[in-house]
Predict the 3D structure of the following.
Amino acid sequence: MKTSNYRIHRLLIILVVILLVGGFQLVRDVKSAPVIRPEGALVVFRAPLTSSEAGSFLREYNLSPSAVYMVEEGLVGTYRTYEPKDIDEFLETARQESIRGMQKALQSNAIHLREFTKQHSLAEVVIRSSLQKELASLLDARFDLQKAVSALQGNGTPFIYALEVKGEGWTRLDNDQRIANLQAFSFGDKPPVPSTSFQMNEIMPVLRQMSPGEMYDLAKEIAP
């Protein structure tokens, strides 16, 4: 019995030592871990900028962009680079990638409209308000995408609402009146949310004036 108690006591001592050593090791590792420093700044603008305006802004402060946040017709997108790029090339690539993404979304929207009219008859849509809302939402999204693509295909459209930038110049941005919010950032931080003043509006008035039958016919015309 004494031997058994001795062994238990000895095991407890060993366990305590292991925990203490582990704790000291953990503290040492935390203290020796590298300090994570901001990689640059996240700049959110009061109003969206055109590509030309964003380029001028970056050159004015000698900054390099690492990500651009875009909004058009309430549709939000992000383009990021992990390698240094010429400012004009970076901004133009962001615009073109945004257009391509919206064009793919239009193709997907047409598929959803086609599936909707295959799965639901006109009679169903006329008597079910939930289906009317779903159809209106699909058509509204399509109109927004079409308007956004058309706007972005014109080079003078203001669509850049925020930038992630690198370079010492970002420390001089405090008094720039174009900026709504400025903060240091590190890779992995959450993206900024666009101002409510240029987020998506409610369903277009033209759709609210259409009857269920007119919306159904339009969907069939878009995606036969």
